[in-house]
Amino acid sequence: MSSPIARPARQLHRGHFAFMRALLQGLDEKESWNRYLQSEGASTDLRTIRHAIAEIRDAFAAAARREARPGMARLVRLDPERFSAAAKSFPTLEAFAAERGLEDFSEAEQAEAYAEAYPDATTGGSERARRGGLTQRSRVIAQQLDALRWLESHMAPEPRPGDDVKAWLNPAVATRLHRCGLRTLGDLVAHINLVGARWWCQVPGVGVHKAARVMAWLDGHVHVPALRLQAHVRMPPGQVPPALRNSIVAPATALLPLEKFRVPEALDGRQGKYRAPQARCGLRATHDHAAISAWLEAKGGPPAGKVSATFRAYRKEAERLLLWSVLVRAKALSSLSADDARAYCAFLADPPPEWCGPRHQQRWSPRWRPLEGPLSPAARSHAVTVVKALFAFLVRQNYMTANPFADVAQPPRRKGAFSADRTLTVAQWDRLEALLAEREDRVDDTDRAARATAPAVARALRWLHATGLRISELAAARCGDLGPLAPAEVPGASAPQWQLSIEGKGTRRRHVPVPAELVAELERELSRHRACEGIRDPACGAIPVLVCFARADAAPRGWSSSGLAKAIKALLMRLSKHCDATDRVVLRKASAHWLRHSHGFGALSERPNQLSRPLEAVRRHLGHASLATTAGYRPRG
After folding, report:
1. pLDDT digits (tens, 9 = 90+) for 590-628
2. Following DSSP, what letter does each residue of 284-306 receive, concatenated?
3. Smallest Cα–Cα separation from 86: which of 122, 136, 124, 50?
4. To 10 degrees, what angle do helices 561-576 and 592-603 make?
5. Which of 33, 120, 379, 432 suits 156 as a labelling partner, its CA being 20 to 30 A distant?
6. Order of strands, sheet of 482-485, starting from the edge strand that comes earlier in the sequence
7. Contacting residues for 236 by C-beta, under 8 A, at least 6 apart
8. In the chain, what are the domain boundaries?
9. According to CATH, what is the number of the domain 420-631?
10. Are 475 and 567 in contact, with CB atoms under 8 Å apart?
C-alpha cells in the first residue's frame, strides 16, 4: 500500500546504479544496501530496503521519461523474479513419499501416486516451463542492465525549470499538480512564490504534509536559481516581517499598490494640464502622487499601529484612479478632463480581467489587484463621491484649477440605505435565536475548528442584534470596556443593565447599553475556561468581549473584523438549512451588518413587543453623525 504522504522521487547518484546492478546479478539485498547505500540510512530492515528499491525504480522510470524513453521507463520497473515464479518446483520422490506416508510402498507405487499428484513433473512440461521462465528472466535482467548503463550515462544531473513535474515528483502528487495547470517545475515554483505558505490550498488532494515534502525537495535544489523559493513562503501571511514584505514585489510602473506604484516622469503631474501655479499652491506636493498622500493625511492618515476602514476606503479609490489614469489613459492625474471622468466610471463597470483578483489579498502580495470585478451601481456611486472629494480638496488647496468629476452624474443607487429588505423581521430573529438555542454550533463533528469557534460566533450574533454595534467596534471591544448602568438610564428596563464604552468613527467615544443576559453569558464562558472570576476581575480587562477558546486549555483570543464577518456569514448559511423557503432565502443573503439595521428598526419600533427609544438616544448608541441618518430606521407608513 502506498503511503498517504506524497514523497518526491529520489535523486539518482552512482550508488543507486551500483546497488541495482548488484541486485540484478543476484547479490543479497542487505549486503548490497550496506555496500552501496548505507549512507542513506543505517536501518537494514528488509521492509525499509524493499521500500527504497521501489522508490529507486520509480526514479529510474522518471529519468527515462525525462529523456523521452517510455519503453525503458516500463522496463526498469519490472521485477525479474516474476518471470521465474511461473516455473514451479516439485518435491523429490522421497520427500513426497514421506509426506504422504508411502515409505512402505514399492517405488513403482510411489511413482504412480507422484505422477497422479504432479502430472507436469513427469511429462517434461515443468522443465520446459522452468527453462522458458529462466530464459525470459535472464533476458529481462540483461535488458535492465543495458538500460541502467544507458541511464547512468545520460541521466540529467540537475532538475530544470522546464522539466515536467512527473519526471521528478511523486506520480500521485504530480498528477494533481497537472490538473491545476502546474505542469513544469518552473510553474510550480512560480505558483508557490506567488501564493505563499498556503499554496497547496488551491491544489485538491495535496495537504500540508504533501506540500511540506514537495518544498523540502525544492529546498534541496536551491543552487538552481530558477527553482529557488522566496523566504515569505515559509511564514503565515500575517507573520511576514515588514522588511521582507517590502522586498517581495519591487516598485514599478505596473498594477501595484499606491506605495509601490512608480509614476513615469512624463505623467507625474508636474506639467499637468489643469495644474495651478506652484507659487499659489497650499500644499508642499509638486506631483500627483504626493498630492494624493497629502489628501490622505488631511483625512486623518493612518493612525500609529493601525489603519482605519475609512482610510482604507479613501486610499483604495484614489489608488484605482491614479493607476487607471497612468496605465490606461496615459495621462497625469492633474490632466484628467470631464470626458476622462466619464470614461473612468465606465471602466469601473467593466474592468479588464488583469485588473481583477481575489479578495483580501495582502498589499505586499504579487496577487494583489485593485479590483475584484465590475463594481455595482452603489459601489460606483461611492467611488465617484470619494474621487470628487479628492479633486475638491486639490482645487481648494490651489493644486488644480478644475474638478473633472464635479458634473459627473452618479449611477443610480438602491433606495434607502436602511431599507427593510436588508433587515431581519422580529419573527425571523426569533426563529434564528431558537435555532441557536437548539444547537448553537450546527457543525459537522469532524470540523473541530468550526465546532470550537461556533459558541463565540453565536454570541456575536446576539451582541450585534442587541447593541447595534458595527462589526469592527464589537471585534475591538474588551471586557474592561464593560461597566454597570443604572436601570433608570434605560427607559423601560427593569433589570440592572450594563454599558460598553466604544471608540467609534472619528475616535468619538460613546456608551452603548448591553443586556444583562449577554454579560452573564460572557461570564459563564470565562469561568468555564477559568480565564478569570468575573467581568470585574482586573485579569479580564484585556480579554475580548467575543472571546474564543480554540481548545479547552488554550489562551483566549479575539476575532478580526473580516474573520468575524466571514464566520457569521458561514453560520447564517448553515442555519438557513433549517428554515422554511422564505426565511432560507433571507438568511442566505443576510450579513453581520443586517443585524445593525435590525437593531435600528427595532429600537424605533412602536410595536408592543419591541423596546422603543427616543430618536436622539438611538442616534447616540448607533454612533450616527446626524439624526437624519438615524431617522431612516423609522417605520414607514
Report:
1. 888 888 888 888 877 755 444 456 788 888 888 887 777
2. S--SHHHHHHHHHHHTT-PPTT-
3. 136
4. 80
5. 33
6. 482-485, 497-503, 509-514
7. 197
8. 14-154, 165-243, 249-396, 420-631
9. 1.10.443.10
10. no
